[in-house]
């Protein structure tokens, strides 16, 4: 099992990034390290699901470029739900261009992601300049950047030197790069870097009870919250279809919250 030396509450107190600190405080207060991936194309559907699952999650993850009827009113409503329920927002934009283009994509266009999203993420395949492109708005607005250090999909090339660069940049500057997207912790918890893992479902490939739904037909691969948190040391699990595609999303959210929080508490105790 992965060993934690600090609780998430202790890490909140020392977190050098304002968005990261708020997230760790929310996690500790609400006792949930579950992020919901709201991968739906209709804004009303996203908002109603967000309202239903908000009590059980710390973070709403969005892909705004799949929303057919996107508007700034949608953003305002999602923000209101998030504020009411003590939830933060993470636009999963995966910036991957040169720094200057990433800067424009983050701040401008019809989405204006920097204005409303507490966290966003970037690939480092184009080199460290992408971080400098995002830096200005992120520092001005107190946002957190997450770098993709590993991906959950089969055959991913986010490995080797790409992983190493992401880890190195986060370790060097946790005040800006508050986290990594990865299958598990790649730095000790004293590095002040939050790890978030997608590809998580109670029906993951290591599930002892559920009939394993190990993936989808597009290469996604799932592990259980227990494996991601206890065995691999991640902090936050990102769950989409196992909740939003369930017959009862609220029940599924509660089950994933409980499993993820128990796995975290056990990894602190051991
Ligand atoms: P689901 O739980 O329905 O498979 O959704 C996973 C979510 O996490 C998707 O929004 C996807 O874009 C994202 N994601 C992922 O699945 N694997 C990664 O390595 C990185 C991601 O951002």
Automatic annotation (TrEMBL):
UniProt GO MF annotations: orotate phosphoribosyltransferase activity; orotidine-5'-phosphate decarboxylase activity
Reactions accelerated catalytically: orotidine 5'-phosphate + H(+) = UMP + CO2
Catalytic residue list: 92, 94, 97
Keyword Lyase: yes
Entry keyword Lyase: yes
EC numbers, comma separated: 4.1.1.23
Pathway: Pyrimidine metabolism; UMP biosynthesis via de novo pathway; UMP from orotate: step 2/2
Orotidine 5'-phosphate decarboxylase domain ranges (all copies): 33-255
Residues noted as binding substrate in the record, renumbered to the chain: 39, 61, 152, 220, 240-241
First-level EC class: lyase
Pfam families given in the database record: OMPdecase
Gene3D superfamilies in the cross-refs: Aldolase class I (3.20.20.70)
GO annotation terms (biological process): 'de novo' pyrimidine nucleobase biosynthetic process; 'de novo' UMP biosynthetic process
Sorted UniProt keywords: Decarboxylase, Lyase, Pyrimidine biosynthesis
Protein name per Swiss-Prot or TrEMBL: Orotidine 5'-phosphate decarboxylase
Species the sequence originates in: Fonticula alba (Slime mold)
